[in-house]
């Protein structure tokens, strides 16, 4: 194996390790991330139990990934703003609020998608 290929594989594994460290950090530090991730696991369990279609699975996975990704971006923005503006600054607060608003919009959209998929199935059960 060439040294270029070995170096490329090593860079990929280092990149994956950094990404995994980021996920672990957000898990340990951010309560909302844990809530969203647990909600995603419950959604997967409900999807399996209620036998959702392939298209419905795709929609559920997409909205879950969007919410979790935005939560991680929001956490990153919060940390950057705390670093740049250790003392309270209205603009830093506004930036944080906007990022949190993005998570809220995605969360509401995911709840709506989940309702469209799960509510009809749950109604037929009862």
UniProtKB/TrEMBL annotation:
Sequence positions that bind ATP: 30, 78, 96-97
UniProt keyword terms in alphabetical order: ATP-binding, Cell membrane, Kinase, Lipid biosynthesis, Lipid metabolism, Magnesium, Membrane, Metal-binding, Nucleotide-binding, Phospholipid biosynthesis, Phospholipid metabolism, Transferase, Transmembrane, Transmembrane helix
Binding site for a divalent metal cation: 30, 78
Annotated compartments: Cell membrane
Membrane topology reported for the UniProt record: Multi-pass membrane protein
InterPro entries assigned: DAGK, DAGK_sf, UDPK
Gene Ontology biological process: phospholipid biosynthetic process
Cofactor note: Mn(2+), Zn(2+), Cd(2+) and Co(2+) support activity to lesser extents.
This protein's record includes keyword Iron: no
Catalytic residues (positions): 71
GO molecular function: ATP binding; kinase activity; metal ion binding
Any one GO CC term of the record: plasma membrane
Main localisation: membrane
Superkingdom in the source lineage: Bacteria
Chain segments annotated as transmembrane: 33-51, 57-77, 98-119
Cofactor: Mg(2+)
Residues holding substrate: 71
The family this protein is said to belong to: Belongs to the bacterial diacylglycerol kinase family.
Identification of the protein by name: Undecaprenol kinase
């Amino acid at each position: 194996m060439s040294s270029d290929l070995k170096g490329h594989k090593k860079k990929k594994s280092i990149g994956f390790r950094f990404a995994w460290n980021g996920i672990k950090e957000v898990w340990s530090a951010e309560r909302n991330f844990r809530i969203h991730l647990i909600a995603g696991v419950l959604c997967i369990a409900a999807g399996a139990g209620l036998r959702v279609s392939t298209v419905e699975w795709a929609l559920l996975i997409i909205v879950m990934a969007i919410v979790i990704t935005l939560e991680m971006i929001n956490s990153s923005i919060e940390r950057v703003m705390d670093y740049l503006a250790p003392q309270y600054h209205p603009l830093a607060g506004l930036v944080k609020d906007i990022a949190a608003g993005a998570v809220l919009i995605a969360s509401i959209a995911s709840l709506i998608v989940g309702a469209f998929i799960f509510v009809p199935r749950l109604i037929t059960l009862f």
